[in-house]
Amino acid sequence: MAETSFDLIVIGAGPGGYVAAIRGAQLGMKVAIVERENLGGICLNWGCIPTKALLRTSEVFHLMHRAKEFGLKAENIDFDLPAVVKRSRQVAGQLSGGIAHLMKKNKITVFMGVATLPAKRKVKVKTDKETLDLTAKNIVLATGARARELPGLEADGDLVWTYRHALDPKRMPKKLLVIGSGAIGIEFASFYNTLGADTTVVEVMDRVLPVEDEEISKFAKKQFEKQGMKIMQKAMVKKLDRAKGKVTAHIEVGGKVETQEFDTVISAVGIVGNVEGLGLEELGVKIDRTHVVTDKYCRTGVDGLYAIGDIAGAPWLAHKASHEGVMVAELMAGMHPHAVKPESIAGCTYCYPQVASVGYTEAKAKELGYDVKVGRFPFIGNGKAIALGEAEGMVKTVFDAKTGELLGAHMVGAEVTELIQGYVVGRQLETTEEDLMNTVFPHPTLSEMMHESVLDAYGRVIHM
Ligand SMILES: Cc1cc2nc3c(=O)[nH]c(=O)nc-3n(C[C@H](O)[C@H](O)[C@H](O)COP(=O)(O)OP(=O)(O)OC[C@H]3O[C@@H](n4cnc5c(N)ncnc54)[C@H](O)[C@@H]3O)c2cc1C
Questions:
Q1: Quick check: 64 and 77 in contact, CB under 8 A?
Q2: Does residue 1 have a pLDDT over 80?
Q3: 348 belongs to a structural domain
Q4: Which residues contact 333 (CB under 8 A, 6 or more apart)?
Q5: What pLDDT sits at residue 2?
Q6: What's the chain's Rg over C-alpha atoms?
Q7: Ligand 1 centroid, distance to 391 Cα (angstroms)
């Protein structure tokens, strides 16, 4: 007979849930995790990982087209879409399998089924075969989120796709409309555009990647346009008329509505938390629109019930979910972890060129009343960037002029999603301009631009 009583039950095995389960087990708890679909959640199966596998293909494809520049010959460059998708699905499958191994290694009981919360400290699990009643001292809700669907723009899987369809396409789009230029929309736009789809991105805000620093958005937009992408800003898709094999989009821009035809639309207009059908309202859990309301320690206000990751609101990022998972397990164990600070969580977009940032944008820092010092350094001034053939990009840093605190760092260009972690560590250690200027960066590396940007903020830049 299966065990039914646990110290901790985690609902949802995404990067929030499975990490909470592992940390709980490390701290000596008897842990169970309930998952209705795939271990690894959206991140490993339908998000972070399979998109990066696809984007690696488009990056290699792009480089193959530039073979001559590197003294190489590549002829008849082409791609096989089913094989591209197969690789991405295999990568996702491999990692999801890895989570099963980690659950076993940490002696975590896995229930594959749908969980509900019938009462405080109780979980009901419906599997294919049976319904189980479980109890736990603590429960962590980590049920994640799904694509937001706007009325009239709903996905049908044929002409109009969400990220799930876009990750497992049955055909290559020829004329593609991407609605929304956040990280998810821009990554798919970048992938399909590089493979040859005639791509248009419609963004309701006044710039692409609207959460990024304005200069970075502008820089990225120029690069996307150079690659042939069409970007419509301050524009809104009002209606989609679907016919056989085509969609007519009614797009409002500059006070007028124009129509354009596409064969495929990817809707990337945000996400909504999976809050329904769990019994949350009955338990007295507060929900704001589609997210569970928590305090900064992810406590829901109901004894023994925590909510982490996408269901607990922005930023909707895997590493934020995982960090919250660790934090709640440590709280339960009587430890005193720090609350997660959203402004210290980096955001990365793996388009071409890549975009990465942490902390405040220049505009936000000013809005908060800081007197700022700003540094900039272009990729063209960096030897490694030129050697790589990646001379387009910039690193921008924002400091508090009074204290020298690094308030924010914003980058666009090759490998910046790997570089940003240097500034994240800096912020965590409450570094100042002086520490950063006194740090010796290895040569030749792209990271030298991180140094130069700081030097520039203080009038000491060397290679510019
Ligand atoms: C296309 C795309 C690309 C992305 N790229 C990145 C990226 O590069 N970097 C990044 O940081 N983030 C990225 N994200 C966001 C990232 O995937 C999420 O922030 C992350 O997965 C959130 O983790 P989570 O644990 O909160 O939830 P999820 O990963 O969504 O996991 C929740 C799990 O709960 C399960 N579940 C839900 N309800 C129940 C129930 N009642 N019973 C049992 N199980 C249930 C679900 O099946 C799911 O497996 C991307 C997202 C998408 C869609």
A1: yes
A2: no
A3: no
A4: 24, 27, 28, 29
A5: 74
A6: 23
A7: 34
The count of domains in the chain is 3
Q: Residue 115 CA: which ligand 1 atom is closest?
A: 42
Residue 144 Cβ inside 6 Å of ligand 1? The answer reads yes
Q: Is 310 in the pocket of ligand 1 (CB under 6 A)?
A: yes
Q: Pick from 37, 52, 123, 143 the residue to mutate for probing ligand 1's pocket: most ligand atoms within 8 Å of its CB.
A: 143
Please report the atom of ligand 1 found closest to the CA of residue 278. Answer: 41
Q: Is ligand 1 within 6 A of the CB of residue 143?
A: yes
Q: Which residue has the tokens 């965590």?
A: 428
Give the pLDDT confidence of 259-312 residue by residue, as tens digits.
Answer: 999 999 999 999 999 999 999 999 999 999 999 999 999 999 999 999 999 999
Question: Do 175 and 90 fall within a single domain?
Answer: no
pLDDT in tens, 220-250: 999 999 999 999 999 999 999 999 999 999 9
Residue identifier of the C-alpha nearest atom 12 of ligand 1 = 317
Residue in this structure with the two tokens 């009643």, named with its chain if needed: 133
Catalytic residues, by residue number, are: 443
CATH number at residue 386: 3.30.390.30
* Residue with the two structure tokens 């949350």: 280
Is 155 inside any structural domain? Answer: no
Quote the CA–CA distance of 200 and 197 in Å, as a whole number: 9
Q: Contact, 145 vs 273, CB < 8 A?
A: yes
Domain membership flag for residue 347:
no
* Residue among 188, 161, 160, 176 nearest 58 (CA): 188
Closest ligand 1 atom to Cα of 18: 25
Q: Which two tokens stand for residue 228?
A: 């042939």
Q: 154: Cβ–Cβ under 8 A, 6 or more apart, which residues? A: 160, 267
Long-range CB contact pairs, 295-298, < 8 A, 24+:
296/339, 296/340, 297/327, 297/328, 297/331, 297/339, 298/324, 298/327, 298/328
Burial class (CB in 10 A: 0-12, 13-18, 19+), 255: exposed
Amino acid at 76: N
How high does pLDDT run on average in the chain? 97
